[in-house]
Amino acid sequence: MTRSPYRAANLGGSADETEAAFYEALQTGNLERLMACWAEEDDIVCVNPGGPRLLGAAAIRAAFSAMFEHGTLRARPAQVHRVQAMASAVHSVVEHVEVVLDGGVREAIVHSTNVYHKTPLGWRLVAHHASPGTLHESQAPGQPPPVLH
Length: 149
Description:
This protein is of the alpha+beta class. Helix content is about 25%, strand content about 40%. The protein has 4 helices and 6 strands, in the order αααββαββββ. It has a 6-stranded mixed beta sheet. The longest helix is centred in the N-terminal third of the chain and has 14 residues, at about 15-30. It is globular.
C-alpha cells in the first residue's frame, strides 16, 4: 500500500486531531485525506447510515469515493462524548449533516461512534458507525427541543 502524503503530517497528535481531519475531509471531498485518517489494518470497519458494513480499506475507499462523486458531505460534529485510554479512544458524536433535497437544504442528525487506536503512525480511525437520529435526540441534556417555524 502506498502511503498518503497526509500520513506524515498526521504523526502523533491526538484522536481529536484525527477526528477533525476526518470531518474536514468529508466536507471538502478529499478522499486521500479521509483515508489518511484510517488505520492501515485489514479489519477496519465502517457503517454509514442505511449502508452495509464495510470491512477493510478498499471497501471503505470505494464507498466514500462513490459518495464524493455526488458532492461533499457537509457534516459538523457536535456534542462529542469522549472515552479515552492509553492507546484507544471512543467518541460518541452527534453530527449535523446538511442534506440537499428538491425543496432545498435540510439538516439531518446522525449519531456516530468513532473508535481510534494509537498506532506507530499516530492516532487512526479503526471504526466509524453512523445511524440516523432525530432533531429531538440531538439536544443537549436540559435543553428544550427546537421550535420549528
